[in-house]
Design goal:
With 610 residues, this protein is α/β, with parallel strands linked by helices. The chain is built from 21 helices and 20 strands.
Length: 610
């Protein structure tokens, strides 16, 4: 018998403003499971995660949490304002019995020292502090809402490694495909208020989702044909046998009701960039360009040519100077040395995903029209603003709402709508993937890949960089930048390692070399390490652990047999809960014993082999 889930949400229903957000959604999380929770923007993923965390009450449905199981929730926007220091914020999340030193250890790993004033943290530093607070207790269940937001590539890679090594069960919401592919083992798709589960990781999700949608469309087509046949019978059929006819009319009414209440697929975003006249062949030429701020060198002696239709991905750790480099390339900032030459007939559009360009008080339609009427020109064609907003999934009521009322994903779509309406032959995209759902991100990547102009893109999304870039401009530190042909994976293969943290953080935040270094580097590192010896304690553990694991296995079989009675919960809920808790604890103990034995056995083989 399979072990009962640690956390189980059943038939969850929640309505906002008369519109059902969740309509019978379910979420089950078992011991050690890693679940990717996916769905469109506004589908209710974050709300379902808050219900799982016990922070929001549903209108209907049940939430079951195994007695004694611990849950930690990472919000999208953590609030540190009431704490004197970052360390105080992280330590406040520890429970009695938790390791008090783990809080400081995680902060150090994340490039913080704990003495920082929470009111002066950047978005990335706030996210790192929240991650430390969430991970420090090593809970049974981790609920992570967009954990990679505001993190640079070194921090994302460190987080992947840290989560991979935890025994905690996890539910993860993220727009970062590579992150989900590397971590998830199960996928829950939240779609039109309901959930569907795939017992495979996110890598298999999109093909499975497309099959589900195709099957749904076939079923809808069959239903439409059946309704058409019944309506034809109503118009032209024989009127004899009145009782039978009344029943058939009632069946037709039921079919129509079924069709009218069927959950309709959410529309797709329709994207097309307004293209200006073609630029010159050379778009940007940098000739021995240098830029510094005080003693810190951002760019040092950089020479390169960006040609028409190049799609350059600019990557580096936070603080490497990516935004400064973009400003140098586009003529917004003058270099300290060298020369920047811009090509002819350039029409530039900048997508600022920090959303600083959006006026919170303006209405959605005024953001596009500038408050001048209700028409705008897209690709040389006059369009009504309502129709254009519909392409980006905005409803007519939303078009008149102020920007302040929009969610993060809706603001991202609005910025995209405005940027793509302006004629351009040079697109500058600063973290364009933030807050976009996966379907919208797909379309954006297709648009960038087919764009006839030139693209400069700053992103920490490895999958996006692989899909759209023709070259990667990589920060090597100390103002040095190197151009690698291909996407992020190609750069990784050529360089032997990924993006590393800035020097000032390297003592804390590990570089991606640990995760992505070449085999030769790993071999050299391994050869340099000294070999441990088995202590008396290690030898004793190796001798007693097999017997301990066997005993734990027998205990698990007995507990599962006791819980196999389907009437047990109804007859004695207290005993059921006690058995469930003991089963969970015994399974965890067996997992820990197996891992300890495996580590000692590998060490013994290493010593004997040397």
């Amino acid at each position: 018998m399979a072990a009962p889930p640690l956390l189980h949400l059943q038939n969850i229903r929640l309505t906002f403003g008369g519109t059902p957000l969740l309509d019978g959604a379910e979420l089950a999380v078992g011991l050690g499971e890693r679940v990717a929770l996916v769905g469109r923007n506004g589908s209710g993923k974050s709300t379902l995660l808050k219900i799982a965390a016990g922070l929001v009450e549903s209108d209907a449905g049940t939430r079951f949490l195994q007695p004694g199981a611990t849950v930690r929730y990472l919000p999208q926007e953590p609030d540190l304002s009431s704490y004197a220091t970052v360390l105080a914020y992280v330590e406040e999340g520890l429970a009695p019995g938790d390791d008090p030193y783990r809080a400081q250890h995680l902060l150090t790993q994340l490039g913080l020292n704990g003495d920082e004033d929470p009111k002066r943290l950047s978005g990335g530093e706030t996210r790192r502090a929240a991650l430390a607070r969430t991970l420090a207790p090593a809970p049974d269940i981790l609920l992570l809402d967009e954990p990679t937001n505001h993190l640079d590539l070194p921090a994302i890679t460190w987080l992947e490694e840290e989560l991979s090594g935890l025994r905690s069960a996890m539910v993860i919401i993220s727009h970062d495909r590579r992150f989900l592919q590397n971590l998830s083992r199960n996928t829950v798709w939240l779609d039109r208020g309901r959930s569907r589960r795939l017992d495979q990781g996110f890598a298999a999700f999109e093909a499975w989702r497309d099959l589900q949608i195709e099957q749904e469309e076939i079923e809808a087509h069959k239903l439409d044909r059946q309704i058409a046949r019944e309506e034809d019978w109503v118009r032209y059929g024989v009127t004899a046998r009145r009782k039978r006819n009344v029943r058939r009319m009632a069946d037709l009414a039921d079919l129509r009701e079924k069709r009218s209440t069927a959950r309709k697929l959410t529309g797709d975003v329709k994207m097309a960039a307004s293209e200006a006249d073609q630029s010159g062949e050379q778009v940007v030429v940098l000739d021995h360009v240098g830029k510094s701020y005080g003693e810190r060198t951002i760019v040092k002696d950089l020479s390169m040519r960006i040609m028409r239709r190049d799609r350059i991905g600019i990557v580096g750790a936070n603080g490497a100077g990516k935004t400064t480099l973009i400003n140098l390339m586009t003529g917004e900032l003058a270099p300290d040395s060298g020369e920047v030459r811009l090509g002819t007939r350039l029409e530039k559009v900048v997508l600022d995903q920090r959303r600083s360009a959006l006026d919170e008080k303006s209405s959605v339609m005024d953001v596009l029209t500038g408050g001048r009427g209700d028409m705008l020109t897209v690709n040389g064609i006059q369009r009504h603003v309502m129709g254009y907003l519909k392409d980006f999934l905005f409803s007519p009521p939303q078009a008149r709402q102020p920007v302040a009322a929009l969610s993060g994903g809706e603001r991202a779509r609005l910025l995209l709508a405005r940027a793509l309406a302006a004629p351009s032959n040079l697109l500058v995209l600063d973290e364009p993937t933030n807050d976009l759902d996966l379907e919208t991100l797909d379309l954006l990547e297709e648009l960038v890949a087919d764009y006839a102009g030139t693209v400069l893109i700053v992103s920490h999304d490895r999958d996006c960089l692989d899909r759209v870039c023709t070259a990667i401009l990589m920060s090597e530190g100390e103002g040095q930048w190197t151009l690698y042909a291909g996407g992020y994976s190609d750069m990784l293969a050529q360089r032997g390692e990924g993006v590393t943290a800035r020097k000032s953080h390297r003592s804390g935040l590990p570089s991606t070399q640990k995760h992505e270094a070449s085999a030769s580097n790993a071999n050299r590192t391994g050869a340099a390490q000294s070999v441990r010896k088995l202590s008396f304690k290690d030898k004793h553990a190796l001798s007693v652990l097999p017997e301990k694991m066997a005993a734990l296995g027998r205990d698990i079989e007995k507990l599962q047999a006791a819980m196999a009675d389907p009437q047990l919960y109804a007859k004695d809920a207290t005993r059921f809960n006690a058995l469930s808790l003991r089963l969970t604890e015994t399974q965890v103990a067996l997992m820990q014993a197996e891992e300890e034995w495996l580590a000692l056995e590998l060490l013994r083989e290493e010593i004997e082999g040397s």
